[in-house]
């Protein structure tokens, strides 16, 4: 990976393309957004693999992430809570949600890299498949 800083933003030259990074949302992605996106990308991909291995078919997963930051310590991230809604025809898998969540936490490399510094909470909810607004039924 290579990065160049100019005009008050950092540009990453990555395999997929250019990635603008800036604390100014009009000039690029904020570092917090990228950090949380990397944890979400890793954990959600892993969750998809776990569901496939457990033969739990799903239509989609929606992930909401909330962060608690400490303004007294350089605005560091102290807690991240991931709430994953797995839409499946087999919504009675709720009894497996906690075990699957612990597998994600234990096996996600990105989460394991920060787990000693940040309190990470991972919650999974299985719901029946229902189109969201704007989805084609």
Automatic annotation (TrEMBL):
The chain crosses the membrane at residues 34-51. It holds the Pfam family OsmC. This is OsmC family peroxiredoxin. The lineage of its organism: Bacteria, Bacillati, Bacillota, Bacilli, Bacillales. It comes from the Bacteria. InterPro entries: KH_dom-like_a/b (IPR015946), OsmC/Ohr_fam (IPR003718), OsmC/Ohrsf (IPR036102). Keywords: Membrane, Transmembrane, Transmembrane helix.
């Amino acid at each position: 990976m290579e990065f160049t800083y100019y005009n008050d933003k950092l540009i990453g030259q990555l395999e997929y393309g250019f990635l603008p990074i800036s604390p100014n949302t009009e000039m690029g992605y904020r570092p917090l957004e990228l950090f949380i996106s990397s944890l979400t990308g890793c954990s959600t991909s892993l969750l998809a693999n776990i569901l496939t291995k457990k033969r739990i078919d799903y239509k989609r997963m929606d992930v909401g992430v909330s962060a608690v930051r400490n303004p007294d310590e350089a605005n560091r991230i102290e807690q991240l809570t991931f709430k994953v809604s797995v839409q499946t025809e087999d919504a009675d898998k709720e009894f497996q949600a906690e075990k699957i969540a612990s597998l994600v936490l234990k096996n996600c490399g990105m989460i394991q890299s920060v787990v000693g510094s940040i309190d990470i909470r991972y919650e999974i909810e299985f719901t029946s498949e229902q189109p969201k607004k704007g989805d084609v039924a």
